[in-house]
Design brief:
With about 60 residues, the chain is mostly beta strands. Helices cover about 0% and strands about 55% of the residues. Strand 3 (about 30-35) and strand 4 (about 40-50) form a beta hairpin. The structure holds zinc ion.
Length: about 60
Amino acid sequence: MSLLETINTTCPYCAEAIELVIDCSEHEQRYIEDCFVCCRPISLEVLLDSSGYPAVQARHEDDV
Ligand SMILES: [Zn+2]
C-alpha cells in the first residue's frame, strides 16, 4: 500500500469536489488547507480506518 492516498471530498463553503493527497503515515491528523476553488480555509480531519484507508471530514474552519 502506498503511503500517499488520493481522496475526494467536498468543500464545505462552495461545495466543489476537491481532491486531497493524504499522507497515511500519520494515523490521525488535522490541518487547514485552502480550497483551491474559493480559497477559503477548510479544516480537515483525517482518520485512518482499520485497513489504513483514510476517511476525511471537511469543515468550516470556525466550526472547530
Ligand atoms: Zn471552496
